[in-house]
Specification:
5 helices, DNA binding, 5 strands, alpha/beta, 121 residues, Rossmann fold, Sig_transdc_resp-reg_receiver
Length: 121
């Protein structure tokens, strides 16, 4: 079974992402902030990651930068609603720092699964 680290501090989005991926027979490992994400990445370097970019304490861009040290082959789907600067800005930044895929919120469960499938291929 494939593993996915879901990094999301918003309880609604964490539940939505986890439910959609679980239905696709993917084992979910949840993190609510960047520190938890990096800890899980070091323990499960063969997993994929769905990473919210706007997080408390350690943000998603910093997670992407540090992943090269703890899990250099991990494939990451960056997600964001954009905050003050807009989703496009953050998703382009995530791509610059190594995110394999990008998806703007709001998205459907099918869009998430399609993007995750492309990421994991």
């Amino acid at each position: 079974m494939s593993k996915c680290i879901v990094v999301e501090d918003d309880p609604f989005w964490s539940a939505e992402i986890s439910a959609a991926l679980s239905q696709a027979n993917i084992q979910i490992l949840n993190a609510q902030d960047g520190r938890q994400a990096l800890d899980l990445a070091s323990r499960y370097p063969d997993a994929t990651m769905v990473l919210d970019l706007i997080l408390p304490e350690v943000d998603g861009v910093e997670v992407l930068q540090k992943l090269s040290e703890v899990a250099p082959l991990m494939r990451v789907l960056a997600v964001t609603g954009g905050g003050r600067l807009g989703a496009g800005f953050y998703l382009k930044l995530a791509s610059t720092f190594g995110a394999t895929g990008q998806l703007a919120k709001p998205f459907t469960a099918q869009q998430l699964i399609d993007n995750w499938t492309a990421l994991a291929a």
